[in-house]
Each structure stands twice: as C-alpha cells, then as structure tokens.
Amino acid sequence: MGLAAPTKEKAASDGREFRDAVTALRDLVGEDLDRVGGAIIDSMGSSTPLIPEVAGHLIQSGGKRLRPMLTLAAARLCGYEGEAHVKLAAAVELIHGATLLHDDVVDASALRRGARTANIIWGNKESVLVGDFIFARAFELMVGARNLEVLQILSSASGVIAEGEVLQLATQKNLEATFEMYLAVVESKTAALFSAATHSGAVISEASDPVAEALKNYGRNLGIAYQLIDDALDYAGYEASLGKSIGDDFREGKMTLPVVYAIARATPDEAAFWKRTIADGRQGPEDFARAREIVSRNGALADTHLCARRYADRALEDLTHAPDNAFSRALAALAETSLTRGF
Amino acid sequence: MGLAAPTKEKAASDGREFRDAVTALRDLVGEDLDRVGGAIIDSMGSSTPLIPEVAGHLIQSGGKRLRPMLTLAAARLCGYEGEAHVKLAAAVELIHGATLLHDDVVDASALRRGARTANIIWGNKESVLVGDFIFARAFELMVGARNLEVLQILSSASGVIAEGEVLQLATQKNLEATFEMYLAVVESKTAALFSAATHSGAVISEASDPVAEALKNYGRNLGIAYQLIDDALDYAGYEASLGKSIGDDFREGKMTLPVVYAIARATPDEAAFWKRTIADGRQGPEDFARAREIVSRNGALADTHLCARRYADRALEDLTHAPDNAFSRALAALAETSLTRGF
Q1: Would A197 be classed as within a structural domain?
Q2: Which residue from A325, B151, B166, B207 puts its CA 20 to 30 A from A129's CA?
Q3: Which residues of chain B register pLDDT less than 70?
Q4: Residue A215 covered by a domain
Q5: What percent of chain A has pLDDT over 90?
Q6: Which of B47, B95, B129 to mutate: most A Cβ within 10 Å?
Q7: Residues A8-13, mean pLDDT to the nearest whole number
Q8: Measured between CA atoms, how close is B25 to chain A, in angstroms?
C-alpha cells in the first residue's frame, strides 16, 4: 500500500500534516476569518432565545471552518480587495451548519465534534426549525454580497446538497449501490459546497473564466477526496481523536465506498454478513468490529484511500491553472495532506 | 355578535364569499398562475425520484395558491408587464410548501388539505430533506428574477418565518402566553410571507414607495386576519369542509388566540381544565369537545373573530393607497370576505 494508500494506522493518526495545512491556511486568512465569525454571530441574533442558543452551540462546537476558509482563500488568491467575500464565506459556513443540524436529525446522531448534538440537547423539532432559520440567514448574507452570479452558484449548490442527502437516504441499505451511485451522493452532499465555496470566491473577485473554472474544479475534487477519507475514517478512525462517533455509517446502513468495495469482493460468508447487517439492519454488538476487520483485510479501505488520492491529485492539477501565490500554495497543501486526515 | 363577529356556524360554513373572492382573483391572474404552476413543476425536477414524488404530492394536494396569486395580483396592480413576477410567485409558493413539509414533521400532523401528509406517507427524514430541497429551489427561482431588492425581501421573510415557528414552539403549553406573544408568532410565521408576497410583486414592478408600502402592509394585515381565522377554525370548524384535522392546535398545546382569550376569562374550574389539557398535556377523548364548548360560550372565539376583523379592515384601508383597478378590487374582496373563510 505504502504511499499510494496510507495504512489504517496512518489514516487514523492525528493527521498532523493535514492539521498543519489547515493551520497554515487559517494563519493566512485569519483576519478575514475573524470577521466571518463576527458576521455569523451577528446573523444569528434573534429575540427568540432558542435560536442563538442552538446556533451558538453549533458555532462554539467549532469545526475546522474549512469551507469559509476556502472562500476567503479563493478570493484572495484572485487578488480580491473588497468586503463581500466575508459575507459569502459566512453564508457558506451557515449553509453547512444548517445541513449539519438537519443531518443529525435525519441520522439520529448523538455526537458531533466531540459534543452532544443539538437534536439530543434540544430535540428534533428545534433542530429542524433552527436549521431553517440558519439556512434563511445564509441567503440573506449572500444577498448582501450583491452579486447575482454568486447568488446563482450558492443557491444552486444548496439545492444540490439537499438532493444528495435525499439520494443518500434512497441508497441506504441497498447492497446493489454502485461506485457511480456513491460518487453521485458525495458529489452532491459534500463536493457541491466545497466547489461553490471556492468558485464563489473566484467569481466575486472577477477572476477570468479559466481561473474561476480551475477553482470550481479544485473545490469539487478536494471535496470528494475529503468525503472519501471521512467515509474511510468511519471504519478506520478512533472516536476520541475524531470527536465524533465512529461506526455511524455502518449502523445506519449507509452505502459508503468501503462497503461498496467490500461487497464487490465478499466471500459468501461475508456477503451474508453484509446482507444481515446492512440490508436487513440486524446488528449485534460485535458486528462493527467484524466490519472493520473485513474492510481492512480485503483492501476495501486501502482502495477507498487510493480513490481519494486520485481526487486529491486532480485538485492539485486544477491549481496549476490558477495564479501561483501564498494562497494557492496553501490550498495545494490542503489537497496534498488531505489523505492524512484523522480529524 | 352579528356582523362584528360571525357566529360559529357562519365561520364554519363553506365560506362561499371567501371562496368566490379567491375564484375571482384566480380568474384575473389565471394565465400567470398557470405559468407559476409550470415553473414549480420544472423546478422540482430531479434525477432522484423521491423528490418529484414528495413535491408532486404537495403540489397536487392543491391548496388555494393564495400566496402566489397575491404576488401576481400585486405586480399586475402596479402595471407590471415583465416576466419575473411568475418566478417570484413560484418562489413564494415553494417557500410556503417547504414550510408545510417541515411544519407537518414538527407537529406530527397526519392530514393536510384532505390528504395524508408527506411525513406519514414517506417519513420524517424524507420530509425534512425534500423540504430543504424545495427551499433551495425557491431561492434559485428568486435569483432568476434578478432583482436584489426583491431577493432581500424574500430571503428576510424566510428567516422571519423560521423564527416564528421557533417562537411558536417555545410558547407551546405556556399558559402565560399573552396576546402580544401570540401576535408575534402570527406576524412571523404567516403574515411575513403574505407581506413579502405582495411587497415583492410591487417592488419588481418598480411601484412608487407609498404604493409598495401600502401593498406590503396589506399583505401583512391580510395574513394576520387569515391566521386568526385559521386558529378559530381549529376550534370552530368541521373537519370534512376544512380538509384538515381540527383540534390539532389543542392537542399540541398551541397557545392560539382562542385559548389565550379563554384562559384570561376562565372560571377556576376552566383554569384547571386548561392547565391539565394544555400545560400538562393530559387529554382525554372528551376534552376537545369541552374546549370547543368553552371557547364558544365565553366569547373567546367571537373575540378572535373581532380581532381578525380589525386586521381585515386595516388591509382594506391599506388598499386605498394603491391604484384603483380590477386587481386592487379583487384584493379588497379577499380582505372583505376573509372572515367568512371556512376552508
């Protein structure tokens, strides 16, 4: 496996390389990112106390703020000197946040970023409605950027994300799910927002069409690689270092790539295992450990990493069509290290 | 009670006057409304079959399409001759539709417009995600109208609606809820979209500020009257003619105006009844009949109608600041007849 596919131990390490790349990017856009944080807090203001409470929980539980950093970096990469990229970056993070609130309801998740999820603390109803509020405020922020092309990019991405979530729900527990179906889910639910994040940063900067296209593609390919690693970590990771439950995808019967690959190469005994645990949803306490053992032994995890590497390489290639500066180099480092991600 | 407050029987009639006013408005904007229907169907297209299924169910189950008609009529009233009002009207109806899908999840409703709700047929998860999709497509449609002021109006209204839903959830089962708290809920969850519907129609038409303001206020006041009658009908109506469950508000412990008024004038015995059924949520099979009897006998329902009449009158007054033509007269007829509403 070596370089081409990091071992399980490597992937499940603390992902220092990726963490360093994220930190370097944050240092580069730090001032802008602080203003994004301010814009988010401002836009969560409401006389209905539950809204800032739930939103505050979501915001304070942190996360890497990767998506808004992508917007900020893409804009700066293109030489942007205006103010609107802060609103766009805040909108991107809020779209992501609203999606997380609704996702956790749909998946009945209990733990995210090391903290209890809003649906557990406040309830499903509250998470649905506050998610709607956050989503609406994201649109208000975008409108404030006063650029119709950017509005088109971000509103279209929002639709695609929801479509991806529905598609994921429809393929759940379906052992016939193919690589193509899996990829369609990942492209919609994750890559669309990564892509809109970088693309909108370029468009607000009035970048040339080839540069805007390069950044749009970079975001898409980075997003796919990122989600592939995420899906591998749900089998290969360690709960404490990830700050979220592992094994969730398995318990929900999600047809992520490790399982798609594992089923394609299953022995009759393993095929019966996947049918019982994924299709029929009958799982005992030892089953997740067995699932981990299978996807590790038969190469499904290693091949998931290989696939992630292909997309990370494409993201790097995309950047060769963008100006070479500190921002593009920071974005390149993200793509280069995304496979080491352990958080 | 007479004219000032229709009797229960009157309010629960088939509401012919209101129905006729809606039909007259529909005849006036019919061609535009057909195009709104087309725009809605187009924008619900997706390769993920569940989306057009759930959206189709929502669309086919009908409803009066009152909100998009308000946008169309407001635009025509102001002499609009462009195309963008169709997109705006479709967006308004989709925002409403997305809200209904999420509402039915939050309220665990089983029946709407005489049909089973999507959450019952497909499930809560599906309703949450398809609602998100519809909401996103509503924004795409608005962006297609290419008018930043209108985008501001509609995106802001979307946030206010969600805020109102959260506020409603927070006041549920709270016997201390006041008229002011109730009004804040109604203004946000219902009147904000009515107001944005008429306001955006005026603004896209480049109406003068006083006319745009008049139509904005008309929508708000009509929306409040409409919701007040809706809340009265949940106690006074008949399930068969309403096409939705009655007694839902009571069962969910919603502090609507009939209950707010009834509690303010309760005998000690009635106060104990409301505490048990609303605050503690302990309800037996006969309790809704008793609730109906109380709100009817002690004038809470009649006063809810009186209050609705005040807002309907304000809506009529607002229209005196708009041009007098077939469209403004049709809107006036809506306000005039809104108290007879039985569907």
Answers
A1: yes
A2: B151
A3: 1-14, 62, 113, 238-244, 342-343
A4: yes
A5: 76
A6: B129
A7: 43
A8: 30
